[in-house]
Amino acid sequence: MFPDTIKKAEKAKEKKSPYGYDIDLEKFIREEAGEHERINKATEVPKKMRDTLLKVGVDPTEKERAGTFIQLDQTGIYSSQASKAVEIMGLNVALEKYNWLKDYMWKVVAPDTDKYTAHTALRESEGNIGGYFIRSKPNSKEIFPLQACMFIGDERVMQTLHNIIIAEENSELHIITGCATGEDVSSALHLGITEFYIKEGAKVTYTMIHNWAEQVEVRPRTGILVGDNATFINNYILTSPVKSIQSYPTAYCTGKNSRVVFQSILGGRKESILDMGSRVILEGKGASAEIVSRAVSKDKSEIYSRGHLAGRVPEVKGHLECHGLVLSDDSMIYAVPELVGSATDLEMSHEAAVGKIAEEEILYLTSRGLTEEEAASMIVRGFLSMDIKGLPPELAEETKRMLDMSLKGM
């Protein structure tokens, strides 16, 4: 790692994030936990873990998958590759294989963003490297998705990882990533750095499903660089309880006619605190962005739904949409839409609405024979079941199945 990166990280070790409450990192094990033996097949993961993988879209049979990566705590226990159009492996393996890869690290996410990026960078400098490397080759089109899982199985683990995804020119790449926790884990911390490089004419869809335990803290940090005529589509699903999550990925549309879509489905349950958002910086002529989120809060959950569009050059377009349903008096949704225009001849708009289930809808469904609880459940699931854009038909159907599975708890 470059000395300048380490120096920046050292200075930011105590730097609090402007979003989400602060976490005492010393409460979590740093060095000795999280070492596991590697496996030869994905189906060799323990049965309890295998069942959880399926819930987050990761299929241990690897049927119709272009490749797989699984990290358990701090160990990359498995990786495989079925397609010649793509590469997938642990970041530590990739750094040994490709000397040029270091030039992509910490370029879209700064190591001194906050204490969470700083601690991840410092661990990395000590040789404790987690996460994966994914690359689609130039002019390739792989319709089957790559799959990756970040799993926490040990108590009080601080899981750190750094993912690098590179879509080369005119390639198409689909990724399903699932993050989850073992049933016996009552407390843990997940710090995940992800950097995307979407080059000219490339397209990437990235579908993420989270299924954490109730006392897990989650702090992902993501940056996306989108080139000329390139497309990045991000689908995010979280409907299970978690202690807290704070995520605000930022996409930089520097290329002309570059396009970004963020779609989020959030279900706040129990005492979860979800501070979620997406930010797009429109800097290339003809660039466009769409941010769409659906949020439902129940029990004593809190949801902060953020969205930020910044148009910095003429002839860019952006739309921000946030809709929320509050299902209990003890829960809360706080919508924060932001539009910033610093050039002429641009189009940006936003739409935000937070409310409750309409009584007439409940009455209509109960008059058709449903109980009030069944009627409310149907309305909520319909509200959250928005179309997932940008996927091949087969993958879109599978994603809808995963979403339906996630919504059962709501």
From TrEMBL:
InterPro entries in the cross-refs: Fe-S_cluster_assembly_SufBD, SUF_FeS_clus_asmbl_SufBD_core, SUF_FeS_clus_asmbl_SufBD_sf
SUF system FeS cluster assembly SufBD core domain: residues covered: 154-383
A Pfam family per the record: SUFBD_core
Signal peptide (from-to): none
Similarity remark: Belongs to the iron-sulfur cluster assembly SufBD family.
Protein name in the entry: SUF system FeS cluster assembly SufBD core domain-containing protein
